[in-house]
Amino acid sequence: MPIRVVRTVSALRRAVMRWRAAGERIALVPTMGALHAGHLALVRAARRRARRVVVSVFVNPAQFAPHEDFASYPRSWDTDLAALSAMGVDLVWAPAVAAMYPPGFATRIVPQGPATAGLEDKFRPQFFSGVATVVGKLLIQCAPDLAMFGDKDYQQLLVVTRLAEDLDLPVKIVAVATVREPDGLALSSRNSYLSASERAAAPTLYRVLEDCAGKIARGALPARALDEAAAAIERAGFVLDYLEARHADTLAPLSSRADGPIRLLVAARIGKTRLIDNIAV
Questions:
Q1: pTM of the model
Q2: Rounded mean pLDDT of 223-227?
């Protein structure tokens, strides 16, 4: 039986209402398509925790700035659908832009807290408003018990968790560990932009994060370890946007291990591709 795809909110809600009436637990996996093994890990995590799994596939224009890659963002609908069907996903929610943002749409969620930590928000000022608005809509539309988010996008994970808590949405945000290539590169749909030489250099980000985390764990001052790490990243051919040690729960700046659990976060550009990654200390 072919996987079910719905494109209207009314059809989506009819399906969800039937599952709810049967007492079935529902998990949502929000995606922008161009699925890779990281997305499929989210689906597997959802399947372990819920009877019904909904995967949304929507390239959200609200989170792209005018100079960013909305038009060229990787899209692979047929391949995505085959992968989701093979995994037994119950329903794919694939709305058109006009269904998510119809004429007259005039409401945006503007998150604070972890969304204003001076990391991704510093370089992509509209990004988290676009993310929060679309995720808020998806959580309301799909009414899941659980929603799965990868911790590769760590700041986004904290923003979405705060969103659900602050708006009293009856959903548990579940973090799923980053999936990596054998050489450590975090999986991302944008990895397809990398040239062969850029792909060879890209794992430097994770190797440097691991080295930096080890130094801090052994007692090095974060500032010194970060300076050494930043130099190593730039030597590999990257242009660094940020490399920071932040409080793992709040993303507040910190100066020593005594300030709380530490998360290292990095964003850097190589060629035309911008990569992000993070690691716990």
A1: 0.95
A2: 96
